[in-house]
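Problem 12. The chain below contains 372 residues. Write out its predicted structure in token notation.
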Amino acid sequence: MLPPKALTDEERLNWLRLIRTEHVGPITFYKLLERFGSVDSAIRNAPDLAKRAGGKKQLVIASRESAEKEIQALTKTGGFMLAACESDYPTYLRAIEDAPPIISVKGQRSALNSKQMIAMVGSRNASLNGRQFAERIARDCGQANMMVISGLARGIDTAAHQGALKTGTIAVVAGGIDVIYPEENAKLYQAILEKGAIIAESPFGTAPTNRHFPKRNRIISGVSEGVLVIEAVEHSGSLITARMALEQGREVLAVPGSPLDPRSKGNNNLLRQGATLVENAQDIINGLSRHPHHMAEPTSFFTERDEPLSDDEIAHARTKILETLGPVAVRIDELIRDIDMPASMVLAALLELELAGRAARQPGQYVVLLSE
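Solution.
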């Protein structure tokens, strides 16, 4: 991995244009960067790749005007953008496979990397005891020089942020960074900015919908070294965050709860599965020290490219992929083994199918065929 690189305003603008382009998600973004060596080159070549793969409509790169408008709107509110290759970008977040290429930030730049990071999540409909515990343990973690990360939601999230306000806390929001949700947390949002930060992946002005929250959750766990689940019903968003933390190599911790309270069923199950039991801040410190997080090698943003494959080779791989894939996601390594072709060829063809809107990558190195 080359050292982080500070982008010029023009380069950051183009990073934003590419990630705001239809069919370009984080993994596709990095694959384009890997294939073409620069975002400028990716912007020039991506529409042709989509056309070759049989896209029903032309791939249109997000306009320069729309990107400039978004950056100006964020700047007017006191925010700034960071690209994944820049030194101030959260170090742990950079290491996950689908790290947002661009994040919007408000608050203190120093909060993003200054301390050990612990995420706290739990039920929106939290019990009084659960909220009180979350506030207390967040305060204790802050006093132990830890940064508390959560999602600004009602219940446990709110209590965790409130407990850590004096020492600093980070809120990851699902919509645009200017959209405060829930509205009742407007004062908390402003208070966080004094010693902490707000982070968003979605475009400025985006109202959060259900599909935004799992994406938000991967950032909460990705920024952190561990995720503490305080109260969680079965099949909740908090358990999704815990699962993502495991996939990212983070530590999962849980607070035991009453077996009579359905809000504790999820965290109690995590404990049965081996999560670190937490009753106080020292348990968190001990848990993270016993299982230090080893970050995966981050995406190498500026590297020499391999020799290009021929159009015929990629076309053959595209045909095989379309014959093999279906509406149920499969792991990419299994797809490569099944097709029995060089990985570079399969991945190049897969990139073209993604840009054409015919296939989509999913977290965990899965891919699925999209209905046409």
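Discussion. The chain has 15 helices and twelve strands. Students who got a different answer should revisit the alignment rule from Section 12.3.
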